[in-house]
Amino acid sequence: MIKTFDYEKLPVVEVVNEILYDASKRGASDIHFDPEENEMLVRIRIDGELLNYTTIPNALKKNLITRVKIISGMNITEVRLPQDGAIKQTIKDVNLDLRVSSLPTNEGEKIVIRILDYSMSLKGIEYLGFSERNFKKVSKLINVPSGIILVTGATGSGKSTTVYSILQKLNKSETNLITVEDPIEMNIAGINQVQVNSEIGLSFANVLRSILRQDPDIIMIGEIRDNETARIAVRASITGHLVLSTIHTNNSLNTIERLLDMEVERYLLASALEGIISQKLARRLCDKCKQKRPTNDYEKEIFRKVFGMEVNEIYSAQGCEECGNGYKGRIALHEVLLITQEIRDAISNNMPKDKLRALVYNTDVNTLLQDGLEKVINGYTTFEEVIKLIELDDDLENNNTTYKFNLNKALEQTELSKTSQINTNQINDALNKPTTPTVNDDLFIDDDLSKTQVLDI
């Protein structure tokens, strides 16, 4: 456990405040209050991983949950149904903006608190970890006059951060920018933001219909959740509006298929869709303690299959007083697809999935796997982080390879490489050994980027 409290001396109010304050200072994104038979376990999520923080005695469990529900505006008498709430307050000069969710379980109510951090959104898209090539594509994408732009990824993959960063860029005095969100996560001056309220019939679809009568230039939809919202969003984008939204899919190809599954007409999707930004979050290596190590045979094979060349060294996590486990913060892995006329024609003509995949990934697109491995080579994250996040078989298929990889085997060999003791002569021999890379130019994302620049570490 990270922390202990003297529950005989500290009132519940102070315990809750200390947990919120300390979790925020540690850079946590979520706080979990998990009810168990004999106690309540409190866990915090830092850099994507849940860590045991403290335990709450059963005698104080209900009091603590009640306190959280009071300050988040929930109904404290309702314990049978899920509830949502929000907390905005200042604790020890730290301004906290929190989203709270309660869920009834067999051991009592489970509370999860999301700690919202807008620092990255306020900085702008330049600080979101886009490679130079992907940044140029995103900059081109957000300057289109109309169409729909989608940011995709799983829950907690940083979609909102990316969307708000783009909104900051698009927020100009000469544009009428309206958002429809559930909930509104960040108040932005100069933007008209609408909060969805399904209890009174104020759904995404209903708000969108009204927004179209408000003379908008740019519309942001917090999330495309259902068929009706998807169809209205696409139709809005072909009537001269720029529409920005998010959707829960893994990559560009899955996004196109998902929209078609949501009964969006093919001809409308083909003409409306302008681009897709897919992303995942990997833990970022600590700059103070990261160290180079030789790649093992397994890693070399993956680099050969993806880039067609030898990579002899990559960075690994070590751990120091500042980071603890070798990681500090997170970095996004991106896949940015600009829709070409060929892709539009393929969508309209109902091209089979395998041919559409080949068409999408033979265009100027850098897959999540490619972007992740480039960030490994450049020392931003580790090999094991990338292969834990990305389905190797699927992404290698996107790269037109048929080599099959096993995750457990990859992690096992990576761990062996980190722990094995290799003497200096062996390392030097490995580094000085001549290689004969088979380079496939189609796999590189930037015509202006030389192979030496890609591997510049």
Give an overview of the whole structure:
The chain is α/β, with parallel strands linked by helices and 457 residues long. 37% of the residues lie in helices and 24% in strands. The chain has 18 helices and 15 strands. The protein has helices spanning 12-25, 58-71, 119-123, 132-141, 159-170, 204-211, 227-237, 252-261, 266-272, 297-307, 341-348, 353-361, 368-377, 383-389, 392-398, 407-419, 424-432, 451-454, and strands at 30-35, 39-46, 49-57, 83-91, 94-105, 108-115, 147-152, 177-181, 192-195, 218-221, 242-247, 273-285, 291-294, 313-316, 327-338. The chain has a 7-stranded mixed β-sheet with strand order 9-8-10-11-7-12-15, sandwiched between helices. Strand 2 (39-46) and strand 3 form a beta hairpin. Helix 6 runs parallel beside helix 7 (227-237) and helix 9 (266-272) packs antiparallel against helix 11 (341-348). The longest helix has 14 residues, at 12-25. It is globular.
